[in-house]
Specification:
Elements (H helix, E strand, L loop, with lengths): L1 H14 L6 H8 L3 H7 L3 H29 L4 H17 L2 H10 L4 H24 L9 H22 L6 H15 L13
Helix pairs in contact: 1-2, 1-4, 2-3, 4-5, 4-7, 5-8, 5-9, 7-8
Length: 197
Amino acid sequence: MNAILRATAHILKTKGYAECSTNAVAKKAGVSIGSLYQYFPSKEALITALAEEHAQKARDLMLESIAAAAAQPRSVEEMVRAYIDAMVRLHADDPELHRVLMEQLPGIRVGVLAMQRASNQTAGLVRAWLEAHRSQLRELDVEVATYVLITSVEAVTHLRLMDRPSHLDTETLVDELSELVLRYLGIAPTRKARRRG
């Protein structure tokens, strides 16, 4: 099954959505079309499986960040930066595939639902973190703050992936998003927005 998903990803990145047929995927993966259909009944099912795999990576990165924060005492600023760094790293992992999925999933209902499930899980983690650290933050509506934070970070990281601005390196992006989030939470960052030298 992994070979089929890797073949799907390769065709999507090199030839595009229109050329990514089940026959082309089966040929690239070196399996019969019958074998492919045992796992994936359609092209949409293939792309949805890729989206779910990507969503699982996002959940794993979030859980890694939370586990690391729990393992050693960290300031709110360090935890915010760790979360943002994880999100930026997620989008930097196979950016071509990520871009194709972002472009194609809006037209595939089951794919959208897979990404919504992942987003809901991320929202649950962020909401729980906000509740746990409420005494250190400005007065805010946790539901609203969860939405604003997730949407802001995802929007910037997605747009960076689409626009590919040459002047915005990863370290700078993490610094600037950390500054944005911390100030929204009512915390004055102790580190410089951009590290130099």
